[in-house]
Write a structure and sequence with these properties.
single chain; alpha/beta; FAD/NAD(P)-binding domain; Enolase-like, domain 1; 3 domains; 11 helices; oxidoreductase; FAD; oxidoreductase activity, acting on NAD(P)H
């Protein structure tokens, strides 16, 4: 009788972490990772920072060196795409013409950069999602060149920070009236915008890109407010789209991602989904959510690995992110919306606390990792808070949230 086999489609952080966690938990069957990129599993956060600037070596991206995958008897098949799932036979069809039998299948296909219809044939419209994208951009960004970034979210601002460190001229176009509107409140947004502007970045907020034309010197973008921006390079950073096509073609329930339960199970028996591609229930939202952060990819992968081995588990992690910009670290914990209170912590960086109905719902900390950790624990246990106490001069947030 053949050994049991878990197949993982997706060679990113979530897929790789599922495989490693299975071995750590004692699974002795076969594990195969199928990834369409020509690399072993790697993490994406450094792509917009150290990989772009050249400060980080490519080897630092990888979850583990190649010899570790071999030592743990995890087969990594890079540069091969999964093209179809044959559910009745529990069989994967592969782009190289082969097939792979599985007992359980984990869909960890992640997400792809959302496209903006700008005449995709143009040579200077770029996206930043893969290792290849980052290396290509690194070659294009030279001192004195002009970069136009469409989108002022996490990736857009991190790229702006990296480009200014490389003495590249930067303009950022954003449809929202403030930067990082999905991640932070308006007060934090203003602080971030000011830091970028002090470093020389120019913002064009509250306007969208409506056209592009190619000229000898590069690309000219036209915005909804009539602004014309010329760049040698244009990078579109307007979010991502989940890679749920493989699941959809197999008839697995999807809605902006693969729909799973609290353990990661999809609507199809023996098929699971993890990371950016998974839409799952959480305790802090009345609707299912899809998360796109390093922490989620790591924690969700560990939870799904446990569930695959029969452990009773229900994933419920406090959402969180971090972003490195201009030498500072911004950390977000929980849901950062609702009433916002600024607390200037003596001996640490500034903190913004979000609360609703007497409970702490979120926290943004700038260069204050200790308070970010305390806040995450407080949010996780549903800590209550008196807004009047938070607003009092000299409020000790560490004491209030413990």
């Amino acid at each position: 009788m053949p050994e049991s086999r878990i197949a993982i489609v997706g060679g990113g952080q979530a897929g790789g972490r599922v495989a490693l966690s299975l071995r750590e938990r004692g699974y002795g069957g076969g594990i195969t990772i199928i990834g369409d990129e020509p690399h072993p599993p790697y993490e994406r956060p450094p792509l917009s920072k150290g990989i772009i600037t050249g400060a980080d070596a490519l080897d630092s991206l990888y979850l583990e060196p190649e010899d570790i995958w071999n030592a743990r008897d995890i087969e990594v098949r890079s540069g091969v795409a999964a093209t179809a799932i044959r559910l009745p036979e529990r069989l994967l069809e592969l782009g190289d013409g082969g097939t792979l039998r599985f007992d359980d299948l984990v869909i960890a296909t992640g997400a792809r950069a959302r496209r903006l219809p700008l005449g995709e044939g143009g040579p200077d419209i770029s996206y930043l999602r893969t290792q290849a994208d980052a290396l290509s951009l690194r070659e294009k960004l030279r001192p004195g060149r002009r970069l136009v970034i469409v989108g002022a979210g996490v990736i857009g601002l991190e790229l702006a920070s990296s480009a200014r460190a490389m003495n590249v001229e930067v303009d950022v176009v954003e449809t929202a009236p403030c930067v990082m509107a999905r991640q932070v409140g308006p007060a934090v947004s203003r602080v971030l915008q000011r830091r970028h502007e002090e470093a020389g970045t120019r913002f064009h907020l509250g306007q969208s890109v409506v056209g592009a034309r190619w000229v000898e010197a590069g690309v000219v973008l036209s915005t909804s407010k009539g602004t014309s921006l010329e760049g040698d390079v244009v990078v579109v950073a307007i979010g991502v789209v989940p890679n749920d096509d493989l699941a959809r073609r197999a008839g697995i329930a999807c809605q902006d991602g693969v729909i799973v339960d609290g353990a990661g199970r999809s609507s199809a028996p023996h098929v699971w989904a993890v990371g950016d591609v998974a839409r799952h229930p959480v305790s802090w939202s009345p609707t299912t959510v899809r998360q796109e952060t390093w922490r989620h990819a790591d924690r969700h992968a560990r939870a799904v690995a446990a569930a695959l081995l029969g452990e009773s588990t229900k994933y419920s992690e406090v959402p969180g992110f971090w972003s490195d910009q201009f030498g500072s670290r911004l950390q977000g914990e929980g849901v950062c919306s609702g009433d916002e209170v600024f607390i200037d912590q003596a001996g640490g960086g500034p903190v913004w606390v979000y609360h609703a109905d007497g409970r702490v719902t979120g926290c943004i900390a700038l260069d204050n990792p200790k308070l970010a950790t305390i806040a995450r624990k407080a949010i996780g246990r549903g800590a209550t808070v008196d807004p009047a106490v938070l607003l009092a001069p000299g409020a000790d947030l560490k004491r209030l949230l413990r």
